[in-house]
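Changelog-adjacent note: as of this version, every example in the card shows the full chain rather than a window. The one below runs 73 residues end to end.
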Amino acid sequence: MGVRILDAPWVHQHGVEATVREVLAIVGDAPTYLTFDIDCLDPVFAPGTGTPVAGGLSSAQALSIPSCGRWAT
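Full-length structure tokens:
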């Protein structure tokens, strides 16, 4: 089993809807646990993160991803 990482630049380039489609294409119908690390957020939105890196996801992007997929229904 491989690991696929969709990093912030990928999400910025492709958008939230494409990110959700990619996740669903990867996992198919398998039970899936989706998790976010606080470090995925841009430090503007999460100033307390331990490893701040500019260019991370916005709060809106991070909140939209779990709201879009089949897991939201």
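Structural remarks: The CA atoms of residues 14 and 66 lie 16 Å apart.
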